[in-house]
Amino acid sequence: MGTIHHHHHHHQPSSFPTKKLITGALYALLPLALLRVYLFSIPLNQPELTNNTQTQETSSPSIPSSQAAEGVEQRHSPRSPRCDYSDGRWVPDSRGPRYNGTSCSTIKDGQNCMAHGRPDAGYLYWRWQPNQCQLPGFDPVSFLQLIQNEHLAFVGDSMARNQVESLLCLLSTATPPELVHRDGQENIFRRWVFHDYNATISVFWCPFLVKGIEKSAASGLNHNKLYLDSPDERWASELDQMDMVVFSVGHWFLHPAIYYENELVLGCHHCPESNHTEIGFFDVFRRAFKTTLKVASSRYWSSPASSEKLVVVTTFSPAHFEGEWDKFGACPKKEPYKEGEKEMEYMDAEMRKIEVEEVAAAAKEAAESGGRLRIEALDVTKQALLRPDGHPGPYMYPNPFADGIKGKVQNDCVHWCLPGPIDTWNEILMEMIRRWKEKSS
Ligand SMILES: *[C@@H]1O[C@H](CO)[C@@H](O)[C@H](O)[C@H]1NC(C)=O
Ligand SMILES: *[C@@H]1O[C@H](CO)[C@@H](O)[C@H](O)[C@H]1NC(C)=O
Ligand SMILES: *[C@@H]1O[C@H](CO)[C@@H](O)[C@H](O)[C@H]1NC(C)=O
Ligand SMILES: *[C@@H]1O[C@H](CO)[C@@H](O)[C@H](O)[C@H]1NC(C)=O
Fold first, then answer.
1. Average pLDDT of 370-379?
2. Where do the Trichome birefringence-like C-terminal domain residues begin and end (predicted)?
């Protein structure tokens, strides 16, 4: 699929209003136009149905880091419901990852940094230290017990996919999943079952959450179309079969787009050749979440099975392009940022804020209407921001420097290497599910 056009949206600050909103958009546009390339350009050579090679080996559950950890000890109990995992720092951890690029068979090629020859391994030896408490390490058996007889769905863009693939690798250290369903170009809809637990995990490609048409050669569009008052039915129509759903979107909202509401054009983003009004994407992002969470609430309520449900929103994950996306050294860091070393960019902060606010509003409403639905933010923006070292960079492709350093080399400074920092998101997700189950039982 080398023909996917790159749409180089050159920065043209002079021809645009200098409002912060627009600057933020342009700042991020160039590299993000490539997300589609990242997602679709790498052929998956084999179906992902291969057995996991590391099956029985880790039969003893891993030691929770609350027991292994040094330093900051439990001023609050480690599973205190009040623990805020969103703020903290990365600290060295000699234990290293629970899986690797050869032990886990479900890692997408573009994120298998080890197998692709990434030479440094230091980025694997960090753990997230929240300010007020300890984050227990991932325990695959406990996680599987938590989702026993249930269905956990991930809905969103390639970041949702990145997170689900991390989770599958973490869980396969206990028992291998079976891929029971796949559909769509590059298997963008997939479902796995962990038979020992009758636990189902799935991923749905819905990069806007709301109804949309993606720009592509196939659709003949050079911009996206978003219908902000309608959910993407690819997830919404299956909601009644989900017990827990994790929404994870963001970067696709930065692309050129035309927005519709009530079948009327609301405005557009980065559409100089049309006559629509530029409205940026922040308000659009907010409306998309309003629609999504409203639909999630209302359809859950009307579902006949009146069991408790959990809705999680993984917050925006910042990119770390320091140079040009197609040059050597686009995201060259080998260590996390230290505290205070990196301020959150305006755009990253704003995207996160919108998600956190919309989750809070929807959670309040859900609680007021009876409390069978729990809505929470998995607030990873800060911990992600602090990990410029965790991206595949040039190792999105195998051995990119086999013939020396060439003039052009594509870099992925958006997604996360597996194993890598994104594994921590699933440690937090485990605690969220645990707390929710404890509350509701
Ligand atoms: C996968 O599992 C099946 C059945 O458990 C077995 O017959 C087959 O040899 C395994 N394949 C590999 C590559 O391990
Ligand atoms: C990957 O993990 C397996 C199983 O734990 C181990 O045998 C192997 O040596 C590891 N490979 C690397 C490159 O660390
Ligand atoms: C197995 O899990 C599904 C949800 O994924 C659930 O509907 C079904 O009832 C479960 N089966 C049993 C026997 O609990
Ligand atoms: C934009 O408006 C101008 C003037 O009304 C018109 O000539 C042109 O065709 C319009 N362009 C589009 C893409 O609608």
1. 90
2. 135-432
Tokens 């350093």 -> residue: 405
Q: Determine how β-strand 373-378 pairs with β-strand 309-314.
A: parallel
Rounded Cα gap, residues 126 and 123, in angstroms: 7
Give yes or no for a contact between 321 and 330, defined as CB atoms under 8 angstroms apart. yes
Please determine, for residue 73, whether its predicted confidence score (pLDDT) is greater than 90. no
- Residue 222: pLDDT band with limits 50, 70, 90: confident
Confidence of residue 301 (pLDDT cuts 50, 70, 90): low
pLDDT confidence bin for 302, thresholds 50/70/90: low
**Which 3 state secondary structure label does DSSP give 14?**
helix
273 pLDDT more than 70: yes
Ligand nearest to the CA of 271: 4
Which two tokens mark 270?
Answer: 């980065």
DSSP label of 1: -
Closest ligand 2 atom to Cα of 54: 4
Cβ contacts of 218 within 8 Å, gap of 6 or more: none
Above 50 in pLDDT, residue 148? Answer: yes
Average pLDDT, the chain: 82
Residue 365 is inside which H or E element, if any? helix 346-368
Q: Would you call 94 a catalytic residue per the annotation?
A: no
Q: Do 350 and 24 contact (CB within 8 A), yes or no?
A: yes
Distance 362 CA to ligand 2 centre (A): 44
Nearest alpha carbon, ligand 1 atom 5: 51
* DSSP character string of 140-151: HHHHHHHTTT-E
Q: For residue range 186-201, what is the model confidence (pLDDT) as tens digits?
A: 778 999 999 999 999 9
What are the residue boundaries of the structural domains of the chain, listed by start?
Answer: 46-71+82-208+240-248+282-440
pLDDT at residue 331, as a whole number: 93
CB-hemisphere CA count at 13 Å for 121? 10
Query: Residue 345 has what DSSP assignment?
Result: P
Q: Are 265 and 258 in contact (CB under 8 A)?
A: yes
Q: Is 162 in the pocket of ligand 3 (CB under 6 A)?
A: no
Query: 232 an active-site residue?
Result: no
